[in-house]
Amino acid sequence: MPIEYYDAPDVKALAERIVERLSFGHVDVSRVFCFRSRGTTSRRTVARIHGLSKLWQRALHVKAGYLIEVISERYDKLSQSDKERVVIHELLHIPAGFKGGFRPHRGYINQRIVDRFHEEFKKSGEFTS
């Protein structure tokens, strides 16, 4: 069965909230696209991020962009808190230059870093009167 892809406006809205609340100013959310896939044979992957390489940007005459793909069979079963962590994790792969490349896990992304950003994200959504 081939993999099917669908727009994921819920993931896009979450990514926009995360970028705004965590002040990820280097992320141009207008150039971040979100899709949900169904039918992958991957066993453990919950989400992936794809970048548009410099060569593709040049060939297509477009600016850099990123695509967050969530694997429906796993992502959709997560709690809201875990969905937030997954999207934070994927956004952390986008480097400061926003040019189509990626930040590696080593030194930039691990559970402790994701949890720290998630705590900051939760606190930023609290309103005090």
Report on the structure:
The protein has a 4-stranded mixed sheet. It has one domain (4-124): Zincin-like, CATH 3.30.2010. The chain has helices at residues 9-21, 54-60, 72-75, 80-92, 111-124, and strands at residues 4-7, 32-38, 47-51, 66-71. Helix 1 (9-21) crosses helix 4 and helix 4 (80-92) crosses helix 5 (111-124). It starts with a strand and ends in a 5-residue tail after the last helix. The model has no long low-confidence stretch (mean pLDDT 93). The radius of gyration is 15 Å and the shape is globular. It is an alpha+beta fold and 129 residues long.
Give the SSE map:
Blueprint: E1 4-7, H1 9-21, E2 32-38, E3 47-51, H2 54-60, E4 66-71, H3 72-75, H4 80-92, H5 111-124
Parallel strand pairs: 2-4
Antiparallel strand pairs: 1-2, 3-4
Short overview:
The protein has 129 residues and is α+β, with helices and mostly antiparallel strands.
Annotation keywords:
alpha+beta, 40% helix, 4 strands, single chain, Zincin-like, 129 residues, four-stranded mixed β-sheet
Q: State the order of secondary-structure elements, H for helix, E for strand.
A: EHEEHEHHH
What best-fitting shape do the alpha-carbon axes yield? Answer: globular
**What is the CA-based Rg, rounded?**
15 Å
CATH architecture: 2-Layer Sandwich
Mean residue pLDDT: 93
Q: Domains counted in the coordinates: how many?
A: 1
Intertermini distance: 53 Å
Portion of residues within helices: 25-40%
Low-confidence stretches: none
What kind of sheet is the major sheet? 4 strands, mixed
CATH fold-level label:
Zincin-like
Classified by CATH, the class is Alpha Beta
DSSP strand (E) fraction? 15-25%
Query: Total strand count, please?
Result: 4
**Major beta sheet, strand line-up:** 1-2-4-3
Q: How many separate helices?
A: 5
Estimated structural class: alpha+beta
